[in-house]
């Protein structure tokens, strides 16, 4: 790295004069020390110059979680906005029931998936390249749209109207998203970090698109099991139009809706305070659909081993609700 050359400063002023950049920082050819790369710096990668606007962050559990290895950038030569993910290795343990297993970040794995889904509209798109030190850097296009969970939460209708009028199209889109994960599994890949904030609704098309593929996991009991439980958590959220815990049920005055007492078997395996037996709260939910959600509850006797098994049970639920799959492609974004 070195202080920014005058010609690069001129490039910023010529290509993006309205940038408002007041700090002309340094040029980085080596991105190893990602904490040193910030606003006003430039990363020289693959023959282009990526001006860093800021670090990305994600909101989890009500707090902003900075991601210092993920940079929001402006490509000076093209004017395009891009997200640049630098190499960051992280390992932690996850738990499903009695099983604990390692999860870790793998830039190479994410690069493989980006190549695999390059033409697939169900996923974010991008490419990988190496910096001067051989670090695998991923350059990502923005998914123009909104997180599915935020879109669902913003629907200002009660649950019954939501379930009868909005949910069928959402379920159709969710099934399409599950088929996308099945595609990865059939090619020996895992998403690795299936959460509801990693599924977006694309503006204009209404298509559901997955983002962030850099987590991997080793679950010997079922190589794709962590992905499946992630899909189950999202499904419960969509069916319930949000998360329902004993506290939230009481705060929303929904306790009187529960005619059969709740017990521990009614709650999720991963998050033990989230209600999965949603039919106890909303009795108009069809039994067939509720049984699918209950495969991810503590009271489950049988768990899904493949996404195909989940889809086999879920597609008849869509037919029972009378949904037309194409409706999912025209939703709000």
Taking strands numbered 1, 2, ... along the chain, how are they ordered across the largest sheet?
1-2-3-4-5-6-10-9
| Quaternary organisation | single chain
Return the CATH class of the largest domain.
Answer: Mainly Alpha
Q: Give the low-confidence spans.
A: 324-333
Domain Protein kinase: 50-333
Protein name: Protein kinase domain-containing protein
GO molecular function, one term: ATP binding
Overview of the molecule:
InterPro entries: Kinase-like_dom_sf (IPR011009), Prot_kinase_dom (IPR000719). It comes from Desulfocurvibacter africanus subsp. africanus str. Walvis Bay. One of its GO terms (molecular function) is ATP binding. The chain is α+β, with helices and mostly antiparallel strands and about 325 residues long. It has two domains: about 1-85, no CATH class; about 145-330, Transferase(Phosphotransferase), domain 1. Helices cover about 30% and strands about 25% of the residues. The protein has helices spanning about 5-15, 105-115, 150-155, 160-185, 225-240, 245-250, 285-295, 305-320, and strands at about 1-5, 25-30, 40-45, 50-60, 65-75, 80-85, 90-95, 100-105, 125-130, 135-140, 145, 200, 210, 215. It has an eight-stranded mixed β-sheet, covered by helices on one side. A three-stranded antiparallel β-sheet has the order 7-8-14. Helix 4 runs antiparallel to helix 8 (about 305-320). The longest helix is centred in the middle third of the chain and has 28 residues, at about 160-185. The radius of gyration is 22 Å and the shape is elongated. The two termini are about 40 Å apart.
């Amino acid at each position: 790295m070195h202080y920014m050359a005058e010609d690069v400063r001129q490039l910023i002023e010529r290509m993006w004069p309205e940038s408002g950049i007041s700090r002309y920082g340094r040029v980085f050819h080596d991105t190893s020390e990602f904490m040193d790369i910030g606003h006003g710096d430039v990363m020289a990668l693959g023959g282009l110059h990526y001006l860093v606007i800021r670090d990305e962050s994600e909101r989890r559990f009500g707090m902003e979680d900075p991601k210092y290895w993920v940079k929001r950038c402006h490509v000076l030569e093209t004017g395009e906005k891009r997200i640049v993910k630098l190499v960051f290795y992280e390992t932690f343990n996850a738990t499903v029931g009695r099983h604990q297993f390692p999860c870790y970040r793998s830039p190479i794995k994410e690069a493989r998936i980006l190549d695999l889904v390059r033409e697939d509209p169900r996923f974010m798109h991008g490419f990988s390249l190496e910096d001067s030190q051989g670090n695998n850097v991923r350059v990502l296009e923005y998914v123009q749209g909104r997180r599915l969970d935020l879109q669902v939460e913003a629907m200002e209708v009660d649950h019954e109207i939501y379930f009868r009028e909005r949910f069928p199209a959402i379920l159709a889109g969710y099934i399409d998203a599950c088929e996308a994960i099945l595609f990865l599994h059939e090619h020996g890949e895992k998403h690795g970090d299936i959460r509801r904030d990693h599924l977006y609704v694309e503006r204009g098309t209404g298509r559901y698109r997955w983002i962030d593929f850099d987590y991997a996991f080793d679950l010997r009991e079922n190589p794709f099991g962590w992905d499946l439980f992630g899909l189950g958590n999202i499904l419960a959220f969509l069916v319930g139009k949000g998360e329902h815990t004993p506290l939230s049920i009481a705060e929303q005055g929904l306790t009187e809706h529960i005619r059969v007492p709740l017990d521990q078997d009614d709650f999720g395996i991963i998050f033990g305070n989230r209600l999965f037996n949603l039919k106890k709260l909303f009795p108009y939910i069809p039994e067939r659909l509720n049984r699918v959600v209950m495969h991810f509850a503590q009271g489950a006797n049988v768990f899904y081993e493949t996404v195909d098994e989940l889809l086999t049970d879920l597609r008849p639920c869509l037919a029972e609700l009378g949904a037309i799959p194409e409706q999912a492609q025209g939703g709000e974004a």
